[in-house]
Here is the input.
Amino acid sequence: MAQDRPRAAAKGSGRGTYAVGDARRQKILDTAVEHFALWGFHASSLARIATACGITQGGLLHHFRGKEDLLLSVLAQSEQHDVQRLFATPPESVAAHFATVVALAEDNARRPGLVRMFNTLVGEAANPGHPAHEYFRQRYARVLDHTVELLRAGVARGELRPGTDCEAAGREILAVMDGLQIQWVLAPESVDMPARLRGFLDRLLRELSAP
Here is the structure.
């Protein structure tokens, strides 16, 4: 029994070390969101991010290989949050999907730093040499494909009119979502992003619904 105690203590200590490491990694990610939102990728500094976290740059590099790795990790975490929270269960109807999209806008309104970062990085990533260019290109393609697939399923179920241009409708939805995010970041006190998006999607659904 006496011999087991040191091993148990060491094991518990290891779990504590991992927990501290996970918490520090999350703090770095959260801080990076703020910095990328304010300065974009190129003007952000690993040294400033590390200082804001209360660690050295070497300590930051223990968790991330470099600034590009940190950027892509921030983007991956944000997307994983959206998928797990809102898109894990396939919607039963187009109306249900639109309700989920509005729920995403409501969630984003509670995460202004992430929305500001997204807007900043999307603009930067239009440059093919930007480290997030391919990420955003693929992300928009995935989201568009997912939206078009759901709209086509709505046509097949008889919810939407036959002949509905699902790709055009999908691109319009993405454009309105991004446009509202930009307007909301610039004037959050005067733009109710979820309400405006809900109004647009309600009008679109009425327009596309089968008679």
In short: DSSP finds nine helices and no strands in the chain.
